[in-house]
Design brief:
Elements (H helix, E strand, L loop, with lengths): L1 H14 L3 E3 L6 E5 L2 E8 L4 H10 L4 E6 L5 H9 L3 E3 L1 H17 L11 H7 L9 H17 L26 H5 L3 H6 L10 E3 L10 H8 L8 E22 L2 E14 L5 E2 L10 E3 L4 E3 L6 H15 L2 E9 L2 E9 L6 E16 L4 E5 L18
Parallel strand pairs: 3-4, 4-5, 7-11
Antiparallel strand pairs: 1-2, 2-3, 6-10, 7-8, 7-14, 8-9, 12-13, 14-15
Helix pairs in contact: 4-6
Length: 384
């Protein structure tokens, strides 16, 4: 349900001239005229979640979109912190504006982050507002209801004349809102506990930042007709090393130092250029067919192979020239660090990978950073 709403908002921002990009920490990022906005969606707003969202915003601004009820104190806290907040009415209003602008051919000039939605709250109650935008707002509400129905993410609202004040309720106690509705509406809105999307696995893994539909779209240039798709959790030996040593040769001192990090595939031993900034102790996978691959190489084998590669990479061959009379004598010397000179940290982590299969070939896509892989992660894949 959330992924459907994310896709709708991404399309609307794209139609409005925003450059929409994926994000590891947010649902997506919208950029326009050099200004960046981080967007996060939530069905059950809470103060810790809003605080964490604000702390993750380093440049630009944030837009917090919620389909639940926002407490007045929570809303005031978010606005005082400079955070834009869309509730369900704001979201419907902005979607309606985008639909109308698209019909008029002016979608590229639309600014979705202005204060138009908030101006509705300060409008005079004695003067009815009848505009094309209000009609588009109603269209957007009907579209949202038809897509998402009356599930837990969207609660059926009471009529305008009977609707209680939002400030009297919190996001954790929606019962008074349901009680004030007519009896026939209570039958249409069954109470249900919040549901988490996907399946939670106890694996140290990078998160799944790319959904199934985006993986199929990204695979179309490589696989014309998608016949099957599988999410694989592939083990990698994530390593970091630091090297610092000095070796003497006669009167000279040779300094050998270096540091780096990377990931070694625990299935085929390939050293991949994968950067993992976000590794968690658990991973939530969507409710799709998935497979957890078991490592073929042990930690000791991976450590020994990595040490050999690091030592070979930092081995230095130097030439020394000495003059004896009129003769020049050249001498070659190899300086090689020892295993004890290398501080190596190795951990087993899993990387989610989508494998999209076609009639003749398949392609693999890193579900963490949306990168199409050029090398197969195991021996079973059949690449282009």
């Amino acid at each position: 349900m959330k992924q459907d709403l994310v896709r709708i908002l991404r399309d609307i921002f794209s139609s409005a001239g925003y450059n929409v990009v994926d994000s590891h920490n947010h649902d997506f990022i919208a950029e326009k005229n050099g200004h960046r906005t981080y967007i996060k969606l939530s069905s059950y707003p809470s103060l810790p979640e809003i605080r964490d969202f604000i702390n993750l915003i380093q440049d630009g601004e944030g837009l917090y979109v919620t389909t639940g009820i926002v407490d007045s104190d929570l809303l005031q806290y978010a606005e005082d912190a400079g955070l834009n907040v869309w509730d369900r009415d704001d979201m419907s209003f902005q979607i309606g504006r985008a639909v109308l602008a698209d019909i008029e051919g002016s979608a590229g000039e639309l600014d979705l982050l202005n204060k138009t939605a908030k101006k509705r709250e300060t409008a005079s109650l004695d003067e009815p507002v009848i505009t094309a935008t209000s009609s588009a707002d109603e269209i957007a509400k009907v579209a949202i209801d038809s897509i998402f129905g009356n599930g837990t993410a969207f609660k059926e609202e009471t009529p305008a004349e009977e609707k209680p004040l939002v400030s009297g309720y919190s996001e954790r106690s929606p019962e008074p809102v349901i009680a004030s509705a007519p009896v026939q509406q209570q039958k249409d809105v069954p109470e249900a506990p919040p549901q988490t999307d996907g399946i939670l696995l106890n694996l140290r893994s990078a998160p799944v930042n790319m959904n199934r539909d985006h993986a199929i779209s990204a695979a179309r240039p490589y696989v014309y007709n998608c016949q099957d798709i599988l999410l694989k959790l592939v083990p990698f030996w994530k390593y970091e090393f630091h090297l610092s040593t000095e070796q003497r040769y006669r009167s000279k001192i040779v300094d050998i130092s270096g540091e780096g990090s990377g990931c070694m595939n625990a299935l085929n031993g390939n050293n991949e250029q994968i950067v993992l900034h976000d590794v968690r102790e658990t991973v939530s996978v969507p409710d799709v067919p998935y497979e957890v691959k078991h490592p073929v190489t042990t930690e000791e084998e991976a450590r020994n192979e990595l040490l050999d590669c690091i030592i070979d990479e930092h081995t230095r061959d130097l030439r020394f020239d000495n003059t004896q009379g009129e003769a020049i004598i050249s001498e070659h010397k190899r300086f090689k660090p020892a295993s004890d000179d290398v501080e190596l940290n190795v951990k087993l982590v899993y990387v989610p990978v989508w494998e999209v299969k076609g009639p003749r070939n398949s392609v693999e896509i890193n579900a963490y950073n949306s990168e199409v892989l050029s090398n197969p992660v195991d021996d079973d894949a059949e690449f282009v």
